[in-house]
Design brief:
Chain A: It is a peripheral membrane protein. The structure holds two protein chains of two kinds. Chain A is of the alpha+beta class. Chain A is built from eight helices and seven strands. Chain B contains 43 helices and 16 strands. Chain B starts with 10 loop residues before the first helix and ends with a helix. The chains are: A alpha+beta, B alpha+beta. At the A-B interface, β2, α1, β3, α2 and α3 of A face α3, α5, α7, α10 and α12 of B.
């Protein structure tokens, strides 16, 4: 089971925090800090697994993480999850978080140097919805990229039909349609994204 | 402010986030947040009703503030209101707020539950999905109470959409996790199992997760899932990489589902059905084969997905632990990963190999990688990986490589990360003790440990070295000499002073002949450390000094002078002062004889579980100490009701504890200094005999074997790949003697070999068993014998259990078999005429005295064999007694210490029906009953 999904930046600022096991608020904050200190002191290019901090249950839990541009993506899981599987799941989510806001909202302002981090906070609600399509109650709900995209697309249509509030620009909707969906996971062109995320190459 | 342009319509939110990001200080940030909170609060409280858009915007702001670590104590009501909106976007944000900011406010939960109930009933799949997500994410008990009945129905209903089914499965899983008592098993369980056959792989994945969790607690209920999971897995692994389309991930077909299915199969033993088992073995072989194929893509995702499946398959192979071929192949494959360039794979390979090392089939194969693992310990940059390497070395250690592994761990210890030093110290101490052939080596190792990492050497470790030195007289002289030399170092660790003080106090006389370590030199050496030590160590040294007074009369005056000094007699510490006063007095008034008695050498400590092992378990948690023995023992520790009763009592007995010393002197001057061994020892024995009750379940097939011994006394009782147990027994009247032969079938020594006879409570008063312990080491190919003297006190039904525990290679073995001591063994045959027989038969006509059983023949109905069995049973076979010559009758007397019981039996075969009727008449109901049971099994 996934106990928590924590995303914070290089300074330890939380950018996405999702607990699937109930902890009081202040403990949640402490867990984020403790986890940050655990992963911060690790070099890049060493292994992506380590034992959990004391607050979240110590050696019975594993932290599986990726350091990506300015962000750390950390999954705290128990022994029932496959480490490599979770690592791929993080990869999945990264792709979504990077692409989805661009697809569904407006094209992003190119002058931001750390687009990816800001995407998360400016589209907090979207990010949560995407996450919900992938992880539910601490278990992985869906791993099929097309299925997930279809769900998000459906959500988007609903939003649009309700009009007003956050009606996605027509441009974005057509972008969704034009994406060759089956190709997203397999042939995502990391080179393109490289412009915005300089050290993405580390996990290629 | 470029950020504002990024907003997707909620401009206010974007402005707020940008403001926060632009705050120069923490104070400014808090100020801005408080301003916003006040603003939102006033908007929520205001008279003007907010529209959906505003509510949504404010809730988003609150979520952001919460993310930054600020408490949100309002807004819940507004979020609940959004739940009942008909607009999807508003409902969605309401659910999001509730899921993230779970609140156990029961008032609110009822409202939330109401909204959820409406959405579940709406038949709108999108709304149902939102509601199920909310239940799964909050997962509170109140929600379980409200929806545990409803969710299973949605899950198995025929018209539920796939995406809703998926959500319902995981939702139910979450409810089961929080409140298993509220999720009743029912008709739906069998339908859930059949979801494994579903067309939609997403549904199958979710169902597999659900079944895995349910099956762990209710294995019987979900047994049918095994064959379905195997066939599903088989279809996936044999499919071409394009068959599963969207579920193919970087050329690997449905890796996530494969992993889940392999996990599910780990809830069960290997399938019994040979067809299913064959198919599973094929799958596992295919996975191992595919892992060897050249990669279809250079992307890391391809290798991750492929290897995720491979590692899970290997876990299953280890879990089944029944296919030596697969185990060895798995080991080889992991061996390749040990040198893989991907750190993650090296890490996982080390981790998997750790469990592989505890299987008797693959232990040797794992050992071949020792050099690679040692190299990993030396060269890995990542502490996580090094730690796994330490774990693996510990798991693969046995007598053949202990010296090498311990040496490597010691040298690693010098540079190891502080966070894992204590654990390594414990591991080294355990290995050194467990595999010590030469106890001098053991002593050296522990002293090295103290030298290298003294601060991390816990009390348990140095207590243990003292216990061992005291129990082994062959190492005492060496130990004294070594600690004496170690203490010469100008700066030595306090733990070394403790060990040195204790050992020289006990065995300093063994090296006193050498003028370089004469009594006075020893004393001066110890005393030179005295003032640098803490109070407990000084107290220990004072005890050493009084022991010196006894051992070496020539230093008595020197020591008395020290004790008499103001710094001792007037010490501010009460304990030290008391010791000084009492020891000084003791040395003045007691005669040499009394002194010698009081300060007699420590008696040996009773053998018991190493306290260090308990410490390691406590530190690492039972699941991470991979040693099989440890997990078994862990259970026995729990039986005793405390987390670590053994170490607690160990330290009571072995600490040169100040209070115990003084108690010994004050209360009973004749008792040796130190802990009163009788009481302490007794306590430990009690603790230990309790823990021995964690015996293995009876070995499979032992029932059959047991039945075979009812009518005979000699033969093989039990046999597996390692061990053979033979029996030879003789009985006379109410007494018997049984010889048990334990044969080691392997070429490796069995260690800690301990057979234990266990009588259930009731049996203890009815059957007396006496035996002596056997030698704890059984050499390869050797046989040891144990004699059990048996006395039957009164008639009995149950059979004693023989539990054998021993260590073979690195693994702990635990075997239990029923010992065939049955009531009929105490039969004395009685010959009698036909007339006598029927006369007695009629005397025993009371209905309680007769027991009859009619049963189908299990063996061919051969007259001669039947006769032999009745004689073997112990009664006399009476010929020409029964008017029907086809019938068999027998008579005898059961002898017990308290009484004798006459028994008559009659067996009537019916060849046509292939049935028997057996009638027993005895003067005691329980005896008739038991004899009838025993004899019925024989035909």
């Amino acid at each position: 089971m996934i106990q928590a999904i924590l995303v914070f930046n290089n300074h330890g600022k939380p950018r996405l925090v999702r607990f699937y096991q109930h902890f009081p608020e202040e403990i949640q904050q402490q867990i984020v800090r403790e986890t940050f200190h655990l992963v911060l002191k690790r070099d890049d290019n060493i292994c992506n697994f380590l034992e959990g901090g004391s607050l979240i249950g110590g050696s019975d839990y594993k932290l599986i993480y990726r350091h990506y541009a300015t962000l750390y993506f950390v999954f705290c899981v128990d022994s029932s999850e496959s480490e490599l599987g979770i690592l791929d799941l993080i990869q999945h989510l990264l792709i979504f978080f990077l692409i989805a806001p661009k697809v569904f909202v407006e094209t992003l302002d190119k002058c931001f140097e750390n687009v990816c981090e800001l995407d998360l906070i400016f589209h907090m609600d979207k990010v949560h919805y995407i996450l919900q399509e992938v992880v539910m109650g601490g278990m992985v709900l869906e791993t099929n990229m097309n299925e997930i995209v279809a769900q998000i697309e459906a959500q988007n249509r609903l939003e649009k039909s309700e009009g007003g509030l956050s009606a996605a620009p027509a441009r974005a909707v057509s972008a969704v349609k034009n994406i060759n969906l089956p190709e997203i996971p397999r042939n995502i062109n990391i080179g393109d994204l490289n412009i915005k995320v300089p050290n993405l190459s580390q996990f290629v | 402010m470029p950020a504002v342009s990024k907003g997707d319509g909620m401009r206010g939110l974007a402005v707020f986030i940008s403001d926060i990001r632009n705050c120069k200080s923490k104070e400014a940030e808090i100020k801005r947040i408080n301003k916003e909170l006040a603003n939102i609060r006033s908007k929520f409280k205001g008279d003007k009703a907010l529209d959906g858009y505003s509510k949504k915007k404010y809730v988003c702001k609150l979520l952001f503030i919460f993310l930054l670590g600020h408490d949100i104590d309002f807004g819940h009501m507004e979020a609940v209101n959004l739940l009942s909106s008909n607009r999807y976007t508003e409902k969605q944000i309401g659910y999001l707020f509730i899921s993230v900011l779970v609140n156990s406010n029961s008032e609110l939960i009822r409202l939330i539950n109401n909204a959820i109930k409406n959405d579940l009933a709406s038949r709108n799949p999108t709304f149902m999905g939102l509601a199920l997500h909310c239940i799964a994410n909050v997962g509170s008990r109140e929600m379980a109470e409200a929806f545990a009945g409803e969710v299973p129905k949605i899950l198995v209903a025929g018209d539920t959409m796939d995406s809703v089914k998926q959500s319902a499965a995981l939702c139910l899983l979450r409810l089961y996790r929080t409140s298993p008592d509220l999720v009743p098993m029912g008709d739906w369980t069998s339908r859930v199992v059949h979801l494994l056959n579903d067309q939609h792989l997403g549904v199958v994945t979710a169902a597999t997760s659900l079944i895995t969790t349910l099956a762990q607690k209710n294995p019987e209920e979900f047994k049918t899932s095994v064959s379905l999971a195997v066939s599903r897995l088989s279809r996936i692994v044999t499919s071409a990489s394009t068959d599963l389309q969207d579920y193919t991930y970087y050329f690997v077909p449905a890796p996530w589902l494969s992993v889940k299915l392999l996990r599910l199969l780990q809830c069960y033993p290997p399938p019994e059905d040979p067809a299913v088992r064959g198919r599973l073995t094929e799958c596992l072989e295919t996975i191992l084969n595919k892992a060897q194929e050249p990669p279809k893509s250079k992307k890391v995702q391809h290798s991750n997905a492929k290897n995720a499946v491979l590692f899970e398959a290997i876990s299953l192979i280890i879990h089944h632990d029944s296919e030596p071929n697969l185990l060895v192949r798995a080991c080889n494959q992991l061996g390749q990963f040990l040198q893989h360039r991907e750190t993650n794979l090296r890490y996982l390979a080390l981790e998997s190999m750790c469990t592989l090392a505890s299987s008797e089939f693959s232990h040797e194969a794992v050992k071949t990688h020792i050099d690679t693992v040692i190299n990993a310990l030396k060269t890995e940059r990542d502490v996580s990986v090094r730690q796994r390497a330490v774990d693996l070395l510990y798991a693969m250690c046995d007598r053949s490589n202990a010296q090498q592994i311990v040496a490597e761990m010691l040298s690693y210890l010098e540079t190891a990360d502080y966070s894992i030093r204590e654990e390594i110290v414990l591991k080294v101490a355990i290995l050194a003790e467990k595999y010590a052939v030469d106890y001098a080596w053991y002593v050296d190792t522990i002293l090295n440990l103290i030298r290298i990492a003294g601060d991390y050497v816990s009390e348990e470790v140095w207590y243990r070295v003292i216990q061992i030195v005291i129990n082994r007289d062959d190492v005492q002289g060496y130990a004294a000499k070594t600690v004496f030399e170690a203490l010469q170092a100008p700066a030595c660790h306090e733990n070394l002073v403790k060990v040195g003080g204790y050992i020289l106090g006990e065995f300093g006389n063994l090296i006193a002949g050498d003028p370089r370590s004469s009594p006075l030199v020893q004393f001066n050496l110890l005393h030179s450390k005295f003032h640098l030590c803490s109070v407990p160590t000084r107290a220990l040294l004072l005890s050493t000094y009084i022991k010196f007074v006894n051992l070496f009369p020539e230093v008595k005056t020197t020591i008395q002078d020290v004790l008499r000094s103001d710094s001792q007699l007037k010490n501010a510490d009460v304990e030290l002062q008391q010791r000084a006063v009492e020891y000084l007095r003791l040395s003045t008034v007691a005669s040499t004889d009394i002194l010698a008695t009081v300060l007699e050498e420590m008696p040996p400590f009773p053998e018991r579980e190493s306290s260090i092992l308990a410490k390691l378990k406590k530190k690492k948690g039972p699941s991470t100490v991979t040693d099989l023995e440890d997990t078994k023992r862990e259970r026995s520790v729990d039986v005793n009701g405390g987390p670590e009763p053994a170490p607690a009592s160990t330290s009571a007995a072995s600490t040169p504890s100040p209070s115990a010393d003084l108690l010994g002197l004050g209360a009973a001057p004749a008792a040796p200094a130190g802990p009163p061994p009788s009481s302490g020892g007794g306590l430990l024995v009690d603790v230990f005999s309790d823990s021995a009750s964690a015996v293995a379940p009876l070995a499979p097939g032992s029932e059959d074997n047991f039945a075979r011994f009812v009518c005979k006394n000699n033969g093989v009782l039990f046999e597996n790949q390692l061990l053979q147990i033979g029996l030879k027994s003789e009985f006379r009247q109410n007494l018997g003697r049984m010889f048990i032969f334990y044969g080691n079938k392997t070429s490796t020594q069995f260690l800690n070999f301990t057979p234990t006879l266990i009588c259930p409570d009731d049996l203890q008063s009815r059957l007396n068993l006496q035996t002596k312990p056997v030698d704890p080491t059984v050499d390869g190919g050797a046989q040891v014998q144990q004699v059990v003297n048996i006395e039957c006190v009164s008639d009995f039904t149950e059979a004693p259990v023989l539990n054998i525990q021993f260590r073979y290679g690195g693994t702990f073995q635990n075997v239990s078999v029923q010992l065939p001591i049955t009531l009929n063994k105490f039969f004395q045959p009685t010959e009698m005429s036909s007339q006598d027989f029927f006369q007695r038969w009629k005397q025993l006509s009371n209905p309680q005295q007769e027991v009859q059983n009619i049963f189908k023949a299990k063996h061919p109905m051969d007259t001669e064999i039947t006769k032999a069995k009745i004689i073997g049973f112990g009664s006399a076979l009476l010929e020409e007694v029964d008017p029907n010559p086809a019938n068999f009758v027998g008579a005898g007397i059961i002898h017990t210490k308290t009484t004798q019981i006459g028994c008559l039996l009659r067996l009537e075969p019916n060849l046509q029906a292939q049935m028997y009727r057996l009638t027993l008449r005895t003067s005691k109901e329980t005896v008739s009953q038991r004899l009838c049971e025993l004899l019925s099994q024989q035909f």
